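Archive transcription. Copying these from loose printouts into the bound notebook so they stop getting lost. Printout 1 of 2:
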Amino acid sequence: MITFGRGQKGKLADLGCGSNVAVNVALQAPGATIDLSCFGLDAQGKLSDDRYMVFYNQLASPEGAVRLTLSAGAATFQLNLDALPASIERLVFTGALDGGGTMRTIAPGSIAIGGAATFPLSGADFADEKAVILAEVYRRDGAWRFGAVGQGFNGGMAALLAHFGGTEAASSAAAAAPASAPTPAPAPVPAPAPVPKISLSKITLEKRGDKISLEKGAGRGFGKIRVNLNWNQRPQEHPAKTGFFAKLTGGGQPKGIDLDLACLFELRDGTPGGVQALGESWGAFDRPPYIHLAGDDRSGAVSDGENIYINGDRFDEIGRVLIFSFIYEGVPNWAATDGVVLIEVPNQPPVEVRLDHGGDQPMCAIAMIENQGGKLQVTKLVDYVSGEGKISGHEVIGNKYGFKLRWRAGSKG
Protein backbone atom coordinates (compact mmCIF):
# COMPACT_ATOMS: atom_id res chain seq x y z
CA MET A 1 0.00 0.00 0.00
CA ILE A 2 1.28 3.46 -0.93
CA THR A 3 1.59 6.05 1.87
CA PHE A 4 0.46 9.52 0.83
CA GLY A 5 1.70 12.76 2.36
CA ARG A 6 -0.35 15.91 2.86
CA GLY A 7 -1.20 17.46 -0.54
CA GLN A 8 -0.29 14.35 -2.54
CA LYS A 9 -2.68 13.33 -5.33
CA GLY A 10 -3.03 10.40 -7.68
CA LYS A 11 -5.39 8.95 -10.29
CA LEU A 12 -7.49 6.07 -9.01
CA ALA A 13 -6.63 4.10 -12.13
CA ASP A 14 -2.92 4.49 -11.38
CA LEU A 15 -3.58 3.21 -7.85
CA GLY A 16 -5.34 0.14 -9.22
CA CYS A 17 -8.76 1.30 -8.02
CA GLY A 18 -11.93 1.10 -10.10
CA SER A 19 -15.17 3.05 -9.86
CA ASN A 20 -16.40 0.79 -7.05
CA VAL A 21 -14.05 1.51 -4.18
CA ALA A 22 -14.12 1.87 -0.41
CA VAL A 23 -12.75 4.80 1.57
CA ASN A 24 -11.89 3.72 5.12
CA VAL A 25 -11.43 6.27 7.90
CA ALA A 26 -9.98 5.41 11.31
CA LEU A 27 -9.94 8.41 13.63
CA GLN A 28 -10.39 8.59 17.40
CA ALA A 29 -10.01 11.18 20.14
CA PRO A 30 -9.80 10.08 23.80
CA GLY A 31 -12.93 11.12 25.71
CA ALA A 32 -14.65 12.56 22.64
CA THR A 33 -16.61 11.48 19.56
CA ILE A 34 -15.55 12.33 16.02
CA ASP A 35 -18.37 12.62 13.46
CA LEU A 36 -17.11 11.33 10.09
CA SER A 37 -18.85 12.60 6.97
CA CYS A 38 -18.70 12.85 3.19
CA PHE A 39 -19.81 15.99 1.30
CA GLY A 40 -20.77 15.64 -2.37
CA LEU A 41 -19.91 18.98 -3.97
CA ASP A 42 -20.72 20.57 -7.32
CA ALA A 43 -18.40 22.41 -9.71
CA GLN A 44 -18.46 25.47 -7.42
CA GLY A 45 -17.35 23.39 -4.44
CA LYS A 46 -20.77 23.68 -2.78
CA LEU A 47 -23.25 21.21 -1.31
CA SER A 48 -26.01 22.27 -3.68
CA ASP A 49 -28.11 19.23 -2.71
CA ASP A 50 -28.20 18.35 1.01
CA ARG A 51 -28.99 14.74 0.13
CA TYR A 52 -25.32 14.35 -0.84
CA MET A 53 -24.07 14.92 2.68
CA VAL A 54 -23.58 11.36 3.93
CA PHE A 55 -23.09 11.11 7.69
CA TYR A 56 -24.50 9.50 10.85
CA ASN A 57 -28.04 10.77 10.22
CA GLN A 58 -28.08 10.18 6.44
CA LEU A 59 -26.25 6.98 5.65
CA ALA A 60 -26.54 6.99 1.87
CA SER A 61 -26.91 9.33 -1.09
CA PRO A 62 -30.21 9.10 -3.01
CA GLU A 63 -29.08 6.54 -5.60
CA GLY A 64 -26.73 4.73 -3.20
CA ALA A 65 -23.54 5.91 -4.91
CA VAL A 66 -22.14 6.72 -1.46
CA ARG A 67 -23.00 4.44 1.46
CA LEU A 68 -21.71 4.81 5.01
CA THR A 69 -21.10 2.10 7.59
CA LEU A 70 -20.12 3.31 11.06
CA SER A 71 -18.37 1.70 13.99
CA ALA A 72 -16.62 3.18 17.00
CA GLY A 73 -13.98 5.62 15.77
CA ALA A 74 -14.15 4.32 12.21
CA ALA A 75 -16.19 4.65 9.04
CA THR A 76 -16.34 2.95 5.64
CA PHE A 77 -17.69 4.94 2.70
CA GLN A 78 -18.52 2.54 -0.13
CA LEU A 79 -18.39 4.45 -3.41
CA ASN A 80 -19.93 3.68 -6.80
CA LEU A 81 -18.53 6.60 -8.75
CA ASP A 82 -20.28 5.64 -12.00
CA ALA A 83 -23.65 6.07 -10.26
CA LEU A 84 -22.98 9.64 -9.13
CA PRO A 85 -24.82 12.32 -11.11
CA ALA A 86 -22.73 14.57 -13.34
CA SER A 87 -23.46 17.47 -10.98
CA ILE A 88 -21.30 15.89 -8.24
CA GLU A 89 -17.65 16.51 -9.06
CA ARG A 90 -15.97 16.12 -5.68
CA LEU A 91 -16.43 13.94 -2.58
CA VAL A 92 -14.82 15.51 0.48
CA PHE A 93 -14.26 13.42 3.62
CA THR A 94 -14.25 15.21 6.96
CA GLY A 95 -14.11 14.63 10.70
CA ALA A 96 -15.60 16.92 13.36
CA LEU A 97 -15.32 16.69 17.14
CA ASP A 98 -18.61 16.41 18.98
CA GLY A 99 -18.08 17.96 22.41
CA GLY A 100 -14.89 19.23 24.04
CA GLY A 101 -11.31 18.92 22.90
CA THR A 102 -9.44 19.88 19.76
CA MET A 103 -7.93 18.00 16.85
CA ARG A 104 -4.51 18.08 18.51
CA THR A 105 -5.87 15.41 20.90
CA ILE A 106 -6.67 12.81 18.23
CA ALA A 107 -4.87 9.49 18.32
CA PRO A 108 -2.83 8.32 15.31
CA GLY A 109 -5.26 7.40 12.54
CA SER A 110 -5.60 7.27 8.78
CA ILE A 111 -7.81 7.51 5.73
CA ALA A 112 -7.26 4.85 3.08
CA ILE A 113 -8.72 4.14 -0.33
CA GLY A 114 -9.27 0.72 -1.78
CA GLY A 115 -6.40 -0.94 0.05
CA ALA A 116 -4.12 0.91 -2.38
CA ALA A 117 -3.16 4.15 -0.63
CA THR A 118 -3.27 5.44 2.93
CA PHE A 119 -2.83 8.89 4.42
CA PRO A 120 -1.75 8.76 8.10
CA LEU A 121 -2.85 11.46 10.58
CA SER A 122 -2.15 12.31 14.20
CA GLY A 123 -2.83 15.09 16.69
CA ALA A 124 0.68 16.46 16.05
CA ASP A 125 -0.56 17.58 12.60
CA PHE A 126 -3.07 20.03 14.08
CA ALA A 127 -3.53 22.86 16.60
CA ASP A 128 -6.81 23.87 18.24
CA GLU A 129 -9.15 23.13 15.34
CA LYS A 130 -12.43 21.31 16.02
CA ALA A 131 -12.65 19.67 12.59
CA VAL A 132 -10.50 18.46 9.72
CA ILE A 133 -10.90 18.04 5.98
CA LEU A 134 -9.25 14.64 5.59
CA ALA A 135 -9.14 13.84 1.89
CA GLU A 136 -11.11 14.05 -1.32
CA VAL A 137 -12.04 11.99 -4.35
CA TYR A 138 -12.57 14.29 -7.30
CA ARG A 139 -13.12 14.28 -11.04
CA ARG A 140 -10.67 16.04 -13.37
CA ASP A 141 -10.25 15.65 -17.14
CA GLY A 142 -12.62 12.71 -17.10
CA ALA A 143 -10.63 10.76 -14.49
CA TRP A 144 -11.27 10.25 -10.77
CA ARG A 145 -8.41 11.08 -8.42
CA PHE A 146 -7.63 10.78 -4.71
CA GLY A 147 -6.09 13.66 -2.81
CA ALA A 148 -4.73 13.76 0.75
CA VAL A 149 -5.72 17.07 2.37
CA GLY A 150 -5.30 17.03 6.17
CA GLN A 151 -6.51 20.61 6.60
CA GLY A 152 -7.59 21.68 10.08
CA PHE A 153 -10.86 23.61 10.28
CA ASN A 154 -12.17 25.91 13.01
CA GLY A 155 -15.65 25.10 14.27
CA GLY A 156 -17.39 21.71 14.30
CA MET A 157 -19.88 19.93 12.07
CA ALA A 158 -22.20 22.93 11.73
CA ALA A 159 -19.28 25.10 10.61
CA LEU A 160 -18.25 22.53 7.99
CA LEU A 161 -21.82 22.39 6.74
CA ALA A 162 -21.93 26.18 6.45
CA HIS A 163 -18.52 26.22 4.72
CA PHE A 164 -19.79 23.89 2.01
CA GLY A 165 -23.03 25.85 1.61
CA GLY A 166 -25.41 23.35 3.19
CA THR A 167 -28.43 24.19 5.35
CA GLU A 168 -28.76 23.03 8.93
CA ALA A 169 -32.28 22.25 10.14
CA ALA A 170 -33.42 24.42 13.06
CA SER A 171 -33.17 22.53 16.36
CA SER A 172 -36.02 24.40 18.01
CA ALA A 173 -38.88 26.70 17.17
CA ALA A 174 -38.03 30.35 16.64
CA ALA A 175 -38.88 32.74 19.45
CA ALA A 176 -41.94 34.91 18.97
CA ALA A 177 -41.10 38.34 17.55
CA PRO A 178 -41.98 41.40 19.64
CA ALA A 179 -45.19 43.17 18.74
CA SER A 180 -44.76 45.92 16.15
CA ALA A 181 -46.61 47.55 13.34
CA PRO A 182 -47.26 45.09 10.52
CA THR A 183 -44.96 45.29 7.52
CA PRO A 184 -46.52 44.62 4.14
CA ALA A 185 -45.29 41.32 2.77
CA PRO A 186 -43.69 41.31 -0.67
CA ALA A 187 -45.51 39.60 -3.46
CA PRO A 188 -44.90 35.86 -3.37
CA VAL A 189 -42.32 34.53 -5.80
CA PRO A 190 -42.53 30.88 -6.91
CA ALA A 191 -39.74 28.94 -5.26
CA PRO A 192 -38.07 25.74 -6.38
CA ALA A 193 -39.05 22.54 -4.61
CA PRO A 194 -37.21 22.48 -1.28
CA VAL A 195 -34.40 20.03 -0.66
CA PRO A 196 -34.69 18.26 2.74
CA LYS A 197 -32.57 19.98 5.38
CA ILE A 198 -29.82 18.17 7.20
CA SER A 199 -30.54 17.45 10.87
CA LEU A 200 -27.49 17.23 13.11
CA SER A 201 -29.49 16.57 16.25
CA LYS A 202 -30.69 13.00 15.70
CA ILE A 203 -29.32 9.72 14.40
CA THR A 204 -31.78 7.83 12.21
CA LEU A 205 -30.90 4.21 11.48
CA GLU A 206 -32.28 3.84 7.98
CA LYS A 207 -31.72 0.23 6.97
CA ARG A 208 -31.93 -3.08 8.77
CA GLY A 209 -28.49 -3.84 10.17
CA ASP A 210 -27.41 -0.20 10.50
CA LYS A 211 -25.49 0.35 13.76
CA ILE A 212 -24.29 3.18 15.93
CA SER A 213 -21.94 2.97 18.92
CA LEU A 214 -22.11 5.45 21.80
CA GLU A 215 -19.36 5.92 24.36
CA LYS A 216 -19.92 6.88 27.98
CA GLY A 217 -18.10 9.84 29.45
CA ALA A 218 -14.88 9.29 31.37
CA GLY A 219 -15.51 8.13 34.93
CA ARG A 220 -19.29 7.83 34.60
CA GLY A 221 -22.01 5.63 33.17
CA PHE A 222 -24.62 6.33 30.52
CA GLY A 223 -27.22 7.70 32.96
CA LYS A 224 -30.96 7.11 32.62
CA ILE A 225 -31.61 5.69 29.15
CA ARG A 226 -35.14 6.08 27.76
CA VAL A 227 -36.56 3.85 25.03
CA ASN A 228 -39.77 5.48 23.78
CA LEU A 229 -42.38 3.95 21.47
CA ASN A 230 -44.91 6.26 19.88
CA TRP A 231 -47.48 5.78 17.14
CA ASN A 232 -50.42 7.55 15.59
CA GLN A 233 -53.57 7.98 17.67
CA ARG A 234 -56.05 7.32 14.90
CA PRO A 235 -58.38 4.33 14.98
CA GLN A 236 -58.36 1.83 12.19
CA GLU A 237 -59.18 3.42 8.89
CA HIS A 238 -62.29 1.46 8.00
CA PRO A 239 -65.97 2.24 8.67
CA ALA A 240 -67.67 1.12 11.85
CA LYS A 241 -70.00 -1.85 11.55
CA THR A 242 -73.68 -1.18 12.14
CA GLY A 243 -76.93 -3.08 12.36
CA PHE A 244 -77.66 -6.65 13.32
CA PHE A 245 -74.33 -8.02 12.07
CA ALA A 246 -72.48 -5.53 14.24
CA LYS A 247 -74.34 -6.79 17.31
CA LEU A 248 -73.25 -10.33 16.54
CA THR A 249 -69.60 -9.45 15.92
CA GLY A 250 -69.11 -6.73 18.50
CA GLY A 251 -68.85 -4.07 15.79
CA GLY A 252 -69.44 -0.38 16.26
CA GLN A 253 -66.82 2.32 16.53
CA PRO A 254 -63.43 1.05 15.48
CA LYS A 255 -61.00 0.54 18.33
CA GLY A 256 -57.80 2.48 18.77
CA ILE A 257 -54.36 1.06 18.25
CA ASP A 258 -52.73 -0.79 21.12
CA LEU A 259 -49.05 -1.43 20.52
CA ASP A 260 -47.06 -2.82 23.42
CA LEU A 261 -43.41 -1.96 24.01
CA ALA A 262 -41.37 -4.77 25.56
CA CYS A 263 -37.89 -6.21 25.70
CA LEU A 264 -35.90 -9.38 26.24
CA PHE A 265 -32.65 -9.05 28.13
CA GLU A 266 -29.54 -10.98 29.00
CA LEU A 267 -27.36 -9.79 31.86
CA ARG A 268 -23.59 -10.12 31.78
CA ASP A 269 -23.79 -13.10 34.15
CA GLY A 270 -26.00 -14.91 31.60
CA THR A 271 -29.35 -14.31 33.35
CA PRO A 272 -32.11 -13.94 30.72
CA GLY A 273 -35.58 -12.47 31.11
CA GLY A 274 -38.28 -10.26 29.71
CA VAL A 275 -39.97 -6.98 30.58
CA GLN A 276 -43.49 -6.38 29.27
CA ALA A 277 -47.04 -5.47 30.30
CA LEU A 278 -48.28 -8.89 29.24
CA GLY A 279 -48.04 -10.90 32.44
CA GLU A 280 -47.27 -7.68 34.35
CA SER A 281 -43.51 -8.22 34.18
CA TRP A 282 -42.55 -4.59 34.74
CA GLY A 283 -38.88 -5.13 35.67
CA ALA A 284 -36.95 -2.80 38.01
CA PHE A 285 -34.66 0.20 37.52
CA ASP A 286 -32.55 0.17 40.72
CA ARG A 287 -32.05 -3.58 40.98
CA PRO A 288 -31.63 -6.41 38.47
CA PRO A 289 -32.46 -6.40 35.62
CA TYR A 290 -31.99 -2.56 35.80
CA ILE A 291 -34.71 -2.26 33.15
CA HIS A 292 -38.20 -0.92 33.89
CA LEU A 293 -41.35 -0.59 31.77
CA ALA A 294 -43.31 2.48 32.84
CA GLY A 295 -47.02 1.89 32.26
CA ASP A 296 -49.08 0.61 29.35
CA ASP A 297 -50.74 2.95 26.83
CA ARG A 298 -53.61 0.94 25.40
CA SER A 299 -54.75 3.34 22.70
CA GLY A 300 -51.88 5.56 21.64
CA ALA A 301 -53.76 8.48 23.23
CA VAL A 302 -50.92 9.23 25.65
CA SER A 303 -48.75 11.76 23.83
CA ASP A 304 -45.62 10.36 25.46
CA GLY A 305 -46.33 6.82 24.20
CA GLU A 306 -44.75 3.91 26.09
CA ASN A 307 -41.35 3.99 27.76
CA ILE A 308 -38.73 1.53 28.93
CA TYR A 309 -36.01 2.93 31.17
CA ILE A 310 -32.56 1.32 31.33
CA ASN A 311 -30.20 2.13 34.19
CA GLY A 312 -27.16 3.20 32.18
CA ASP A 313 -25.10 3.61 35.36
CA ARG A 314 -25.38 -0.19 35.77
CA PHE A 315 -24.78 -0.86 32.08
CA ASP A 316 -21.68 -2.90 32.88
CA GLU A 317 -24.05 -5.53 34.32
CA ILE A 318 -26.19 -5.68 31.18
CA GLY A 319 -25.16 -7.79 28.19
CA ARG A 320 -27.87 -7.05 25.64
CA VAL A 321 -31.46 -5.84 25.37
CA LEU A 322 -33.76 -6.73 22.47
CA ILE A 323 -36.44 -4.05 22.08
CA PHE A 324 -39.62 -5.37 20.49
CA SER A 325 -43.29 -4.49 20.10
CA PHE A 326 -46.47 -6.36 19.34
CA ILE A 327 -49.97 -5.46 18.25
CA TYR A 328 -52.15 -6.29 21.22
CA GLU A 329 -55.30 -4.84 19.72
CA GLY A 330 -56.40 -2.68 16.81
CA VAL A 331 -54.55 -1.84 13.64
CA PRO A 332 -54.17 -4.77 11.22
CA ASN A 333 -50.78 -3.79 9.81
CA TRP A 334 -47.60 -2.04 10.91
CA ALA A 335 -47.55 0.43 8.03
CA ALA A 336 -50.70 2.04 9.46
CA THR A 337 -49.18 2.62 12.89
CA ASP A 338 -46.54 5.18 11.86
CA GLY A 339 -44.61 3.68 14.76
CA VAL A 340 -41.25 5.07 15.82
CA VAL A 341 -38.84 4.16 18.61
CA LEU A 342 -36.48 6.78 20.02
CA ILE A 343 -33.53 5.70 22.17
CA GLU A 344 -32.37 8.62 24.29
CA VAL A 345 -29.03 8.48 26.10
CA PRO A 346 -28.06 11.55 28.18
CA ASN A 347 -25.50 13.80 26.47
CA GLN A 348 -25.77 11.83 23.22
CA PRO A 349 -27.83 12.44 20.06
CA PRO A 350 -31.07 10.41 20.18
CA VAL A 351 -31.23 7.32 17.98
CA GLU A 352 -34.39 6.87 15.91
CA VAL A 353 -35.73 3.60 14.50
CA ARG A 354 -38.92 3.74 12.44
CA LEU A 355 -41.23 0.72 12.22
CA ASP A 356 -41.48 0.82 8.45
CA HIS A 357 -42.30 -1.63 5.64
CA GLY A 358 -44.22 -4.04 7.90
CA GLY A 359 -47.02 -6.39 6.92
CA ASP A 360 -49.69 -8.07 9.01
CA GLN A 361 -47.37 -9.98 11.38
CA PRO A 362 -48.27 -9.29 15.02
CA MET A 363 -44.73 -8.74 16.33
CA CYS A 364 -41.68 -6.68 15.46
CA ALA A 365 -38.12 -7.04 16.79
CA ILE A 366 -37.13 -3.36 16.61
CA ALA A 367 -33.56 -2.90 17.82
CA MET A 368 -30.78 -4.60 19.73
CA ILE A 369 -28.93 -2.65 22.41
CA GLU A 370 -25.62 -4.36 23.26
CA ASN A 371 -22.74 -3.83 25.64
CA GLN A 372 -19.72 -4.00 23.34
CA GLY A 373 -16.67 -3.59 25.55
CA GLY A 374 -18.42 -0.91 27.59
CA LYS A 375 -19.76 0.91 24.54
CA LEU A 376 -23.49 1.04 23.90
CA GLN A 377 -24.21 -0.27 20.42
CA VAL A 378 -27.66 0.07 18.81
CA THR A 379 -28.53 -2.07 15.77
CA LYS A 380 -31.70 -1.62 13.72
CA LEU A 381 -33.56 -4.94 13.30
CA VAL A 382 -37.17 -4.11 12.29
CA ASP A 383 -37.82 -7.81 11.87
CA TYR A 384 -41.53 -8.71 11.66
CA VAL A 385 -42.53 -12.18 12.87
CA SER A 386 -45.60 -14.33 13.51
CA GLY A 387 -46.23 -17.31 15.70
CA GLU A 388 -45.59 -20.74 14.24
CA GLY A 389 -48.34 -23.21 15.07
CA LYS A 390 -48.43 -23.59 18.84
CA ILE A 391 -45.29 -21.49 19.23
CA SER A 392 -46.11 -17.86 20.07
CA GLY A 393 -44.55 -14.88 18.36
CA HIS A 394 -42.75 -14.07 21.63
CA GLU A 395 -41.10 -17.47 21.62
CA VAL A 396 -40.22 -17.19 17.93
CA ILE A 397 -38.40 -13.89 18.58
CA GLY A 398 -36.67 -15.29 21.66
CA ASN A 399 -35.45 -18.37 19.80
CA LYS A 400 -34.40 -16.41 16.72
CA TYR A 401 -32.18 -14.07 18.73
CA GLY A 402 -30.82 -16.67 21.13
CA PHE A 403 -32.65 -15.86 24.37
CA LYS A 404 -33.02 -19.08 26.37
CA LEU A 405 -36.38 -18.63 28.06
CA ARG A 406 -39.34 -20.75 29.04
CA TRP A 407 -42.60 -19.29 27.85
CA ARG A 408 -46.16 -19.47 29.16
CA ALA A 409 -49.38 -17.72 28.20
CA GLY A 410 -49.94 -14.32 29.81
CA SER A 411 -52.46 -11.49 29.82
CA LYS A 412 -52.72 -7.86 30.83
CA GLY A 413 -54.16 -6.89 34.20
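Printout 2 of 2:
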Amino acid sequence: MFIYRKSELSALIRRFHSKKAELLILYGRRRVGKSELIDQVISQVGGIRLLAREESRHLQLKRISSELAVFFKDDYLLHAPFPDWDAFFVYLMQHGDIRTVIAIDEFPYLVQEEPSLPSLLQYYWDTGLSKKNLYLILSGSSIGLVESQLMQYKSPLYGRRTGQILLRPFRFIDYYSYVNNLHKAIVLYGIFGGTPPYCLIEEPFIDLEEIVCQKLLMEDAFLFR
Protein backbone atom coordinates (compact mmCIF):
# COMPACT_ATOMS: atom_id res chain seq x y z
CA MET A 1 0.00 0.00 0.00
CA PHE A 2 1.40 3.43 -0.94
CA ILE A 3 -0.29 6.70 -0.08
CA TYR A 4 0.74 10.34 -0.20
CA ARG A 5 4.43 11.31 -0.17
CA LYS A 6 3.34 13.53 -3.04
CA SER A 7 6.00 16.20 -2.48
CA GLU A 8 8.84 13.68 -2.06
CA LEU A 9 7.73 11.62 -5.05
CA SER A 10 7.37 14.65 -7.30
CA ALA A 11 10.76 15.96 -6.16
CA LEU A 12 12.49 12.70 -7.04
CA ILE A 13 10.78 12.47 -10.42
CA ARG A 14 11.54 16.13 -11.16
CA ARG A 15 15.21 15.46 -10.55
CA PHE A 16 15.05 12.52 -12.92
CA HIS A 17 14.18 14.96 -15.70
CA SER A 18 17.02 17.34 -14.86
CA LYS A 19 19.86 17.51 -17.35
CA LYS A 20 22.67 16.75 -14.94
CA ALA A 21 23.99 13.89 -12.86
CA GLU A 22 22.16 13.46 -9.57
CA LEU A 23 23.55 12.10 -6.32
CA LEU A 24 20.68 12.16 -3.87
CA ILE A 25 20.63 11.06 -0.23
CA LEU A 26 17.35 9.59 1.06
CA TYR A 27 17.32 8.80 4.76
CA GLY A 28 14.99 8.34 7.70
CA ARG A 29 14.29 5.90 10.48
CA ARG A 30 13.34 2.29 9.83
CA ARG A 31 9.88 1.46 8.47
CA VAL A 32 9.20 5.05 7.41
CA GLY A 33 8.79 4.11 3.72
CA LYS A 34 12.11 4.81 1.98
CA SER A 35 12.22 1.60 -0.04
CA GLU A 36 8.58 1.95 -1.07
CA LEU A 37 9.21 5.54 -2.20
CA ILE A 38 12.18 4.42 -4.31
CA ASP A 39 10.10 1.63 -5.84
CA GLN A 40 7.38 4.12 -6.74
CA VAL A 41 9.91 6.34 -8.53
CA ILE A 42 11.35 3.36 -10.41
CA SER A 43 7.88 2.19 -11.43
CA GLN A 44 7.35 5.54 -13.15
CA VAL A 45 10.73 6.32 -14.70
CA GLY A 46 12.66 3.02 -14.70
CA GLY A 47 15.68 1.85 -12.79
CA ILE A 48 16.85 -0.65 -10.21
CA ARG A 49 16.98 -0.74 -6.41
CA LEU A 50 19.97 -2.63 -5.02
CA LEU A 51 19.28 -3.66 -1.43
CA ALA A 52 22.44 -3.86 0.65
CA ARG A 53 22.79 -6.51 3.35
CA GLU A 54 25.04 -7.17 6.30
CA GLU A 55 27.31 -9.71 4.65
CA SER A 56 30.87 -10.03 3.44
CA ARG A 57 32.26 -7.71 0.79
CA HIS A 58 32.63 -10.67 -1.59
CA LEU A 59 28.97 -11.63 -1.26
CA GLN A 60 27.84 -8.01 -1.58
CA LEU A 61 29.72 -7.58 -4.85
CA LYS A 62 28.57 -10.93 -6.20
CA ARG A 63 24.91 -10.23 -5.50
CA ILE A 64 25.00 -6.67 -6.87
CA SER A 65 26.80 -7.93 -9.98
CA SER A 66 24.07 -10.51 -10.53
CA GLU A 67 21.26 -7.98 -10.14
CA LEU A 68 22.89 -5.44 -12.46
CA ALA A 69 23.65 -8.16 -15.01
CA VAL A 70 19.96 -9.06 -15.18
CA PHE A 71 18.92 -5.40 -15.33
CA PHE A 72 21.36 -4.47 -18.11
CA LYS A 73 21.05 -7.89 -19.82
CA ASP A 74 24.80 -8.39 -19.45
CA ASP A 75 25.71 -12.08 -19.68
CA TYR A 76 29.41 -11.38 -19.19
CA LEU A 77 28.85 -9.66 -15.82
CA LEU A 78 26.62 -12.53 -14.78
CA HIS A 79 29.58 -14.92 -15.03
CA ALA A 80 32.35 -12.49 -14.09
CA PRO A 81 31.19 -10.46 -11.06
CA PHE A 82 32.93 -7.31 -9.86
CA PRO A 83 36.22 -8.15 -8.11
CA ASP A 84 36.11 -4.89 -6.12
CA TRP A 85 34.16 -1.65 -5.73
CA ASP A 86 36.37 0.13 -8.25
CA ALA A 87 35.01 -2.23 -10.91
CA PHE A 88 31.46 -1.40 -9.80
CA PHE A 89 31.97 2.34 -10.25
CA VAL A 90 33.73 1.84 -13.58
CA TYR A 91 30.70 -0.17 -14.69
CA LEU A 92 28.39 2.68 -13.67
CA MET A 93 30.60 5.03 -15.66
CA GLN A 94 30.26 2.83 -18.74
CA HIS A 95 26.47 2.70 -18.40
CA GLY A 96 25.97 6.30 -17.36
CA ASP A 97 24.86 7.74 -20.69
CA ILE A 98 21.29 6.43 -20.56
CA ARG A 99 19.21 8.09 -17.84
CA THR A 100 18.12 5.53 -15.28
CA VAL A 101 17.75 5.32 -11.52
CA ILE A 102 20.40 3.34 -9.65
CA ALA A 103 19.34 3.21 -6.01
CA ILE A 104 21.45 1.61 -3.29
CA ASP A 105 19.18 0.89 -0.36
CA GLU A 106 20.76 0.69 3.11
CA PHE A 107 24.07 2.01 1.78
CA PRO A 108 25.63 2.17 5.31
CA TYR A 109 25.69 -1.66 5.35
CA LEU A 110 28.16 -1.55 2.47
CA VAL A 111 30.26 1.10 4.21
CA GLN A 112 30.47 -0.99 7.37
CA GLU A 113 32.13 -3.75 5.36
CA GLU A 114 34.15 -1.38 3.13
CA PRO A 115 34.89 1.88 5.03
CA SER A 116 36.68 3.36 2.00
CA LEU A 117 33.49 3.26 -0.10
CA PRO A 118 32.55 6.95 0.34
CA SER A 119 36.08 7.92 -0.64
CA LEU A 120 35.91 5.69 -3.73
CA LEU A 121 32.59 7.21 -4.72
CA GLN A 122 34.09 10.68 -4.26
CA TYR A 123 36.95 9.79 -6.60
CA TYR A 124 34.73 8.38 -9.35
CA TRP A 125 32.16 11.15 -8.95
CA ASP A 126 34.84 13.80 -9.35
CA THR A 127 36.61 12.05 -12.24
CA GLY A 128 33.63 11.17 -14.39
CA LEU A 129 30.31 10.17 -12.84
CA SER A 130 29.31 13.79 -12.23
CA LYS A 131 29.55 14.39 -15.99
CA LYS A 132 27.38 11.40 -16.87
CA ASN A 133 23.60 11.07 -17.05
CA LEU A 134 23.57 9.06 -13.82
CA TYR A 135 20.79 9.30 -11.24
CA LEU A 136 22.20 7.71 -8.11
CA ILE A 137 20.16 7.44 -4.90
CA LEU A 138 21.82 6.38 -1.64
CA SER A 139 19.46 5.54 1.19
CA GLY A 140 19.91 4.54 4.80
CA SER A 141 17.95 4.01 8.00
CA SER A 142 20.57 5.06 10.53
CA ILE A 143 20.25 8.84 10.46
CA GLY A 144 23.48 9.37 12.39
CA LEU A 145 25.49 7.07 10.14
CA VAL A 146 24.09 8.58 6.94
CA GLU A 147 24.86 12.09 8.09
CA SER A 148 28.38 11.22 9.25
CA GLN A 149 29.28 8.99 6.28
CA LEU A 150 27.71 11.07 3.51
CA MET A 151 26.82 14.59 4.59
CA GLN A 152 29.06 16.04 7.27
CA TYR A 153 32.06 18.24 6.51
CA LYS A 154 34.56 15.44 7.26
CA SER A 155 32.85 13.02 4.88
CA PRO A 156 34.61 12.44 1.53
CA LEU A 157 31.23 13.04 -0.15
CA TYR A 158 30.73 16.45 1.45
CA GLY A 159 29.63 18.88 -1.25
CA ARG A 160 29.03 16.15 -3.83
CA ARG A 161 25.38 15.39 -3.14
CA THR A 162 22.94 17.26 -5.32
CA GLY A 163 20.08 16.92 -2.85
CA GLN A 164 18.77 15.11 0.21
CA ILE A 165 15.42 14.06 1.62
CA LEU A 166 14.88 13.25 5.29
CA LEU A 167 11.77 11.09 5.09
CA ARG A 168 9.59 11.55 8.15
CA PRO A 169 6.49 9.73 9.42
CA PHE A 170 3.13 10.84 8.04
CA ARG A 171 1.70 14.09 9.32
CA PHE A 172 -1.77 14.02 10.83
CA ILE A 173 -3.24 15.95 7.89
CA ASP A 174 -2.00 13.26 5.49
CA TYR A 175 -3.41 10.52 7.68
CA TYR A 176 -6.77 12.27 7.99
CA SER A 177 -7.06 12.39 4.20
CA TYR A 178 -6.44 8.63 4.14
CA VAL A 179 -9.01 7.74 6.82
CA ASN A 180 -11.48 10.48 5.83
CA ASN A 181 -13.09 10.49 9.26
CA LEU A 182 -11.91 13.07 11.79
CA HIS A 183 -12.74 11.17 14.99
CA LYS A 184 -11.32 7.90 13.77
CA ALA A 185 -8.22 9.61 12.37
CA ILE A 186 -7.52 11.32 15.73
CA VAL A 187 -7.88 8.06 17.65
CA LEU A 188 -5.84 5.92 15.23
CA TYR A 189 -3.10 8.52 14.78
CA GLY A 190 -2.94 9.01 18.54
CA ILE A 191 -2.46 5.28 19.05
CA PHE A 192 -0.26 4.30 16.10
CA GLY A 193 1.49 7.54 15.11
CA GLY A 194 2.61 8.19 11.54
CA THR A 195 4.86 5.19 10.81
CA PRO A 196 3.33 3.57 7.69
CA PRO A 197 3.34 -0.15 8.71
CA TYR A 198 1.73 0.75 12.03
CA CYS A 199 -0.88 3.30 11.00
CA LEU A 200 -1.97 2.08 7.56
CA ILE A 201 -4.96 -0.10 8.28
CA GLU A 202 -6.06 -2.29 5.37
CA GLU A 203 -9.68 -1.57 6.22
CA PRO A 204 -9.61 1.77 8.08
CA PHE A 205 -13.39 1.95 8.29
CA ILE A 206 -13.92 -1.13 10.47
CA ASP A 207 -14.68 -0.79 14.18
CA LEU A 208 -12.00 1.03 16.21
CA GLU A 209 -12.00 -1.55 18.98
CA GLU A 210 -11.49 -4.29 16.44
CA ILE A 211 -8.52 -2.44 14.93
CA VAL A 212 -6.90 -1.97 18.35
CA CYS A 213 -7.44 -5.62 19.27
CA GLN A 214 -6.05 -6.87 15.96
CA LYS A 215 -2.93 -4.69 15.96
CA LEU A 216 -2.15 -4.32 19.66
CA LEU A 217 -3.89 -6.57 22.13
CA MET A 218 -3.81 -10.05 20.59
CA GLU A 219 -0.70 -11.98 21.59
CA ASP A 220 0.25 -12.60 17.94
CA ALA A 221 -0.45 -8.98 16.94
CA PHE A 222 2.21 -7.06 15.03
CA LEU A 223 2.67 -4.44 17.79
CA PHE A 224 1.86 -6.59 20.83
CA ARG A 225 5.46 -6.48 22.12
